[in-house]
């Protein structure tokens, strides 16, 4: 009896230590990710991290209730309920994250079918678990007194969950050509470790490896992609020139293959050199961050927002009409005007913008299209300089 008690204590200590370090790892990744990335990949990384953390917390709640069922059986019921309802969502968030690293060309319809399959599974699973618990149908699990019991549909759900877990790996393999070659190895670790953890959890239930494996996968992604993302500008959190070039090429290829157009905007911060010379480079950096924040607020997450270089920014968006594009331009100008009105700094921010809806009929390549927009921006910039010179002459007179 004493030996059994010692072994039981060792088991308890094992899962407590494992879950503690898994939770600590997820929290640290969340903390550092929030400070480094302002892209859609970063946002989806955070969602996957948070969902895994919620599921891990639910698992811990369930374990506490199992240790002291006489007093805390209700904790076990809450923990199990949350796990059964939310577990598939972790794989949905994983595939949404992987999608951020796929180009816009290729078998887009097939990818959408995969995504909808995951969404339907998540919705159906949550609905059936809730209905089963509300009406005490005992489909997936139930409690006989203080004892947890598996329901008649438990194995059906478990098999489906494993299938969708394995499909993450299949998905990554099928669409590997759409992933930049330097990213493939790191991205493939997430579905591989998730599948390995799920398999070990089934074979060795006491290991509790599912969420730990996902956490390790997130750690690898963070160090190889998120924190050292070659496509992200460290100052503003927007894409850098390399990232923009990749997105522009993808957008042009997608437009020519699907017939669906897109738009791009080039922006230049006027008098940026003056801000640096008069107020210092820290204030110049601050002005760049303000422009980036305005663009993130105005444009959707689907848009590619980047710092083209120096004081220039570029936005690539799925807008197809000039009228809608002009509305977005007006919103950007309104946001900048509002910032200037608040007088947070001793200088104003002014922008010159060139913009265009991609003409599929011309079939311009990415570089030629960018040059045309760049020229439109410089025409606008020369107008601003001319206006400033005239204003200066009037003031002197």
The whole-number mean of residue pLDDT values reads: 85
Write down the overall geometry: elongated
* Low-confidence runs of at least 5 consecutive residues: 1-11
Strand order of the largest sheet: 4-5-3-6
What is the CATH architecture assignment of the largest domain? Up-down Bundle
Oligomer: single chain
Count of discrete alpha- or pi-helical segments spanning 4 or more residues? 12
Q: What amount of the residues lies in strands?
A: 5-15%
Structural class: alpha+beta
Count of domains: 2
Total beta strands: 6
Helix content: 55-70%
Q: What is the CA-CA span between the terminal residues? A: 102 Å
Q: Major sheet, described briefly?
A: 4 strands, antiparallel
CATH class of the largest domain: Mainly Alpha
What does this structure look like?
This protein is an alpha+beta fold and 397 residues long. The protein has two domains: 2-226, Rhopdopsin 7-helix transmembrane proteins, CATH 1.20.1070; 241-396, Alpha-Beta Plaits (2-Layer Sandwich), CATH 3.30.70.270. The protein has helices at 2-36, 40-67, 69-99, 108-134, 154-174, 184-203, 210-226, 241-258, 272-279, 281-298, 322-342, 366-396; strands at residues 141-144, 147-150, 263-269, 304-309, 312-317, 351-357. It is built from twelve helices and six strands. Strand 4 and strand 5 (312-317) form a beta hairpin. The strands form two sheets. It has a four-stranded antiparallel sheet with strand order 4-5-3-6, sandwiched between helices.
């Amino acid at each position: 009896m004493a030996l059994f008690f010692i072994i039981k204590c060792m088991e308890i200590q094992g899962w407590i230590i494992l879950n503690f370090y898994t939770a600590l790892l997820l929290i640290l990744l969340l903390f550092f990710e929030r400070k480094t990335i302002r892209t859609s990949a970063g946002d989806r990384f955070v969602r996957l991290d948070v969902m895994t953390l919620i599921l891990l917390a639910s698992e811990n709640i369930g374990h506490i209730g199992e240790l002291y069922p006489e007093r805390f059986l209700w904790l076990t019921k809450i923990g199990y309920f949350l796990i059964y309802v939310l577990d598939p969502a972790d794989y949905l968030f994983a595939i949404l994250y992987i999608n951020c690293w796929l180009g816009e060309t290729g078998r887009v319809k097939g990818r959408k079918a995969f995504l909808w399959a995951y969404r339907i599974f998540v919705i159906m699973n949550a609905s059936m678990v809730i209905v089963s618990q509300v009406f005490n149908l005992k489909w997936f699990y139930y409690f006989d007194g203080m004892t947890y019991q598996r329901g008649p549909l438990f194995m059906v759900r478990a098999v489906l969950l494993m299938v969708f877990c394995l499909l993450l790996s299949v998905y990554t393999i099928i669409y590997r050509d759409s992933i930049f070659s330097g990213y493939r190895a790191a991205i493939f670790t997430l579905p591989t470790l998730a599948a390995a953890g799920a398999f070990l959890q089934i074979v060795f239930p006491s290991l509790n490896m599912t969420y730990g494996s996902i956490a390790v996968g997130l750690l690898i992604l963070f160090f190889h992609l998120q924190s050292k993302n070659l496509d992200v500008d460290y100052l503003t959190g927007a894409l850098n020139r390399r990232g923009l070039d990749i997105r522009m090429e993808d957008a042009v290829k997608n437009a020519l293959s699907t017939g669906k157009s897109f738009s791009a905007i080039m922006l230049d911060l006027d008098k940026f050199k003056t801000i640096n010379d008069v107020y210092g480079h820290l204030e110049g950096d601050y002005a760049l961050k303000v422009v980036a924040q305005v663009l993130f607020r105005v444009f959707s997450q689907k848009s590619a927002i980047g710092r083209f270089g120096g004081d220039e920014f570029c936005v690539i968006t799925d807008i197809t009409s000039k009228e809608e594009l002009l509305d977005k331009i007006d919103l950007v100008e309104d946001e900048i005007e509002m910032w200037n009105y608040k007088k947070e700094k001793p200088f104003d921010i002014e922008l010159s913008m060139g913009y265009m809806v991609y003409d599929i009929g011309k079939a311009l390549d990415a570089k030629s299209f960018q040059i045309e927009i760049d020229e439109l921006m410089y025409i606008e910039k020369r107008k601003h300089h001319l206006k400033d010179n005239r204003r200066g002459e009037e003031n002197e007179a």
